[in-house]
């Protein structure tokens, strides 16, 4: 069942070739991964010229979660940039392997992208971040005990989340806070004790994506930008237990505001 018995970079090249062929766009500039709560953001970024069904492309699977979108779009911005919008994130908890998790990122790199924008929905450890608050990712802690890199690939991750791109985001919204994102494996949410552990090791945000993709992106030479939508206070921070319905609801309520924010940021990249 796994397409990844062969070289993952070769498979990404095949997917990129299929994207170029189906869109007629030889090279894209920016890749955008849409996480929970960010689904409508691509409408404001520009004109969608092509919509591809992700699972028809080499190496892509159908998304596992309601609220996640299984399409890949080519969007033309007013500034003339080509954005490859990946709505089909594969999560580590799906058990398809790390190669599957980072296939979209590697495909984007093979499709010519030089910038990667990662978005996600996550839990917040800072009580001031009410559900619906966007937070820039300044760094990450990878708690998956996995890496997308295989063999002696000693990639430097200093400044993984580009200070240059974070400065651009701050120009768009000077009030944006920054935080360290901890990627847990999921699919369960954390226990309150795990949230306290995350806090003590320096995390501000907890989620189930992004870190592995950012590592693969750096290895592929992409400049990385990450932004989280705090859709809930992490377990134990709030007295109320978490529900997936609430997470979706907080994302929907924040939708228009964060879509505009993201479009303004992408418009300046
Ligand atoms: I949305 O509280 C969302 N995703 N690990 N913890 C983790 N992932 C999340 C959370 C959360 N909220």
The overall pLDDT, averaged over residues, is 92
CATH architectural designation: 3-Layer(aba) Sandwich
| Measured distance between first and last alpha carbons | 38 Å
Which geometry do the CA atoms define? globular
CATH top level is: Alpha Beta
Radius of gyration: 17 Å
CATH superfamily grouping: Nucleoside phosphorylase domain
Oligomer: single chain
Order of helices and strands: HEHEEEHHEEHEHEHEH
Low-pLDDT sequence parts: none
Could you list some keywords that capture this structure?
binds 8-iodo-guanine, globular, 269 residues, five-stranded mixed β-barrel, Rossmann fold, alpha/beta
What does this structure look like?
- This protein is α/β, with parallel strands linked by helices and 269 residues long.
- It has a single domain (8-266), classed as Nucleoside phosphorylase domain (Rossmann fold, 3-Layer(aba) Sandwich).
- Helix content is 32%, strand content 23%.
- The chain has helices spanning 8-23, 42-45, 98-101, 103-110, 163-172, 192-200, 211-219, 244-268, and strands spanning 30-33, 47-53, 71-76, 82-86, 115-124, 133-142, 177-183, 205-207, 223-233.
- α1 crosses α4 (103-110).
- It is globular, with a radius of gyration of 17 Å.
- The protein starts with 7 loop residues before the first helix and ends with a helix.
- 8-iodo-guanine binds next to β5, β8 and β9.
Would you kindly provide a brief summary of this structure?
With 269 residues, the protein is an alpha/beta fold. It is built from eight helices and nine strands. It is 32% helix and 23% strand.
